[in-house]
Amino acid sequence: MRIRPAPPGTGIVFRRTDLDGFEIEAVSRNVARVSYATSLMKQGVLISTTEHLLSAFIGMGIDNAMVELDNLELPILDGSAQPFVQMIQKAGIRKQRRPRQYLKIRRELEWREGNKFIAVYPSDSYAVSYSINFPHPLIGKETFQVQLSNGSYLQQIAAARTFGSRQDEQAMRNMGLIRGASRENCIVLTQDGIENGPLRFPDEFVRHKVLDLVGDLALLGKQILGKVIADRAGHAMHTALVSRILRDQTLWEEVTVSANPEESAVVSAAQAAAAAPF
């Protein structure tokens, strides 16, 4: 994988270098299968496991980038967004002259599916509150709230790793999932503990859910101004929220924050690159 600079207004675009440079925009209309990861598809061409990199872009304030891949799946690296953040920091970020356009939430949207809930409310900043409830002695009920500003993403979210159960491993592999999963790129849960501790945060599990949510909401195509509350939601509800927001234009408006204007940003020409570890 290689990340290249892109002109203002480009957004985030994936390019399959193994398929004559076929391009897939990271926007809601291209969302494909959503189960244990968020995938994009356009004209039958697939990009899988996009959420961690998209989350890093939002957390770093990157609006425009061209992501080149020579395969259908992004590198999982250590299972968090931190390696992507570090590569972007090393490459450098260049401000662009065009002011950043935000998608500002004007009125609330909320819905429930069984015990799952997700909602978005008006706010002058981007805030997330996430709750999970897993029947595991190390997890149980966890809630985490964060304002995605002033370096909060880098300090509190980026390093949180994905996780999975050793108990479920074989069934998921039989379905063609988690083909690259290992102890190096996810937290492996046993029946009553973890195989590869220690945790990076006491509540690393719910923090990773926030990381996923931020990545999935990047498919709005713009950074948002709104407060998102999720309870046991998951990728399918995250991306459904994106679709519902975009379908109803009375829910939002495009704005430029004039009081403290932020310019759009792009990964610098130094580029950032990653090789898949599997």
From TrEMBL:
<feature type="binding site">
    <location>
        <position position="208"/>
    </location>
    <ligand>
        <name>Zn(2+)</name>
    </ligand>
</feature>
<dbReference type="GO" id="GO:0009245">
    <property type="term" value="P:lipid A biosynthetic process"/>
</dbReference>
<dbReference type="InterPro" id="IPR004463">
    <property type="entry name" value="UDP-acyl_GlcNac_deAcase"/>
</dbReference>
<dbReference type="InterPro" id="IPR011334">
    <property type="entry name" value="UDP-acyl_GlcNac_deAcase_C"/>
</dbReference>
<keyword id="KW-0443">Lipid metabolism</keyword>
<dbReference type="InterPro" id="IPR020568">
    <property type="entry name" value="Ribosomal_Su5_D2-typ_SF"/>
</dbReference>
<feature type="active site" description="Proton donor">
    <location>
        <position position="235"/>
    </location>
</feature>
<keyword id="KW-0378">Hydrolase</keyword>
<comment type="similarity">
    <text>Belongs to the LpxC family.</text>
</comment>
<keyword id="KW-0444">Lipid biosynthesis</keyword>
<comment type="pathway">
    <text>Glycolipid biosynthesis; lipid IV(A) biosynthesis; lipid IV(A) from (3R)-3-hydroxytetradecanoyl-[acyl-carrier-protein] and UDP-N-acetyl-alpha-D-glucosamine: step 2/6.</text>
</comment>
<dbReference type="InterPro" id="IPR015870">
    <property type="entry name" value="UDP-acyl_N-AcGlcN_deAcase_N"/>
</dbReference>
<keyword id="KW-0441">Lipid A biosynthesis</keyword>
<dbReference type="Pfam" id="PF03331">
    <property type="entry name" value="LpxC"/>
</dbReference>
<keyword id="KW-0479">Metal-binding</keyword>
<feature type="binding site">
    <location>
        <position position="212"/>
    </location>
    <ligand>
        <name>Zn(2+)</name>
    </ligand>
</feature>
<dbReference type="GO" id="GO:0046872">
    <property type="term" value="F:metal ion binding"/>
</dbReference>
<dbReference type="GO" id="GO:0103117">
    <property type="term" value="F:UDP-3-O-acyl-N-acetylglucosamine deacetylase activity"/>
</dbReference>
<feature type="binding site">
    <location>
        <position position="52"/>
    </location>
    <ligand>
        <name>Zn(2+)</name>
    </ligand>
</feature>
<protein>
    <recommendedName>
        <fullName>UDP-3-O-acyl-N-acetylglucosamine deacetylase</fullName>
        <ecNumber>3.5.1.108</ecNumber>
    </recommendedName>
</protein>
<comment type="function">
    <text>Catalyzes the hydrolysis of UDP-3-O-myristoyl-N-acetylglucosamine to form UDP-3-O-myristoylglucosamine and acetate, the committed step in lipid A biosynthesis.</text>
</comment>
<keyword id="KW-0862">Zinc</keyword>
<dbReference type="GO" id="GO:0016020">
    <property type="term" value="C:membrane"/>
</dbReference>
